[in-house]
């Protein structure tokens, strides 16, 4: 990622240089006037340009038009801005403008660039039966580098969400034929939690209760039409920042800090909820409990850093093989589980024995060289009783595998 900063103040340039290097660690080119900026724009492709509005050789904001003629997103820095200038800048389609007031203004610029980089991978679905309204919202979102998908009613929006699970944000109008905004949100929230999908409601209706009703139905925020550009951008970015924070907290609570696979807490929370349904439907649940053989010896011989490398690669191999269809968790230390929902013990045994053989045949590469690692595994299928009982039975099978010489898979 390469950034262009066009600024005639050396103090401001130094502040931006320091903050960008500290927070972004990317290549930055500086220009003190429009002529220098024009030359740099011809030589390089920039992710974004941060430009002062008044330059020695371009005092009326001409640099903005120059930057945009090179299809480069533009963030404007300015010491002052009247309402007429503001309208003109927004009509030009800049990313945002920031008043040069204090250090926090420059920190905001850096946060905005970081957000723009993340936005490139964020899909937004806009649901509105008005073509004009959809295109207006789409244009605002594309200025912020989002990937935008459109739907002309609630039903088609719901179908898109079901077929494209990687959509991060839904922006929906209230008045739509077939399925209105409220109905859409209710259906969506049956499938997608707040950690998975953020929702912003829109409406031109004068009903004052709409905002509360949208949020009570499951929306994260609401905007009354018509809205100004800045309010729309701030609401969208604040909603996504909140979603990022919620996801981060969820990951801290449910993922193992070292390996990134699910932790013990998530495993029990997930399957204690599902156990009653498994009983009622008489479906299968088989749990494999794995223990890396002689792992203490790895730590004692090579150190805990190498031990961590082994754990990370071991869990990565488990996840690659089973993570897409089953649940891989780290129970603690060198102990892991794979929960095979829908499989009986024999099928789980076949899969785990294949994994055991592959692990033994492919040494793990560490900073101290390749290490041949083996694993012992105990398998138990759910019959009746509790999840604790199922784990205890798998643990007994694991004990058998160790007693019989390790590097084995045993069924309880």
UniProtKB/TrEMBL annotation:
Q: Which reaction does it catalyse?
A: 2 GTP = 3',3'-c-di-GMP + 2 diphosphate
Keyword Repeat included in the entry's annotation: no
- InterPro entries, per the entry: CheY-like_superfamily (IPR011006), Diguanylate_Cyclase (IPR050469), GGDEF_dom (IPR000160), Nucleotide_cyclase (IPR029787), Rev_trsase/Diguanyl_cyclase (IPR043128), Sig_transdc_resp-reg_receiver (IPR001789)
Q: Which UniProt keywords apply?
A: Phosphoprotein
GO terms for MF? diguanylate cyclase activity
Pfam families with a match to the protein in the record: GGDEF (PF00990), Response_reg (PF00072)
| GO BP term, pick one | negative regulation of bacterial-type flagellum-dependent cell motility
Q: What is this protein called?
A: diguanylate cyclase
What is the species listed in this Swiss-Prot or TrEMBL entry? Shewanella hanedai (Alteromonas hanedai)
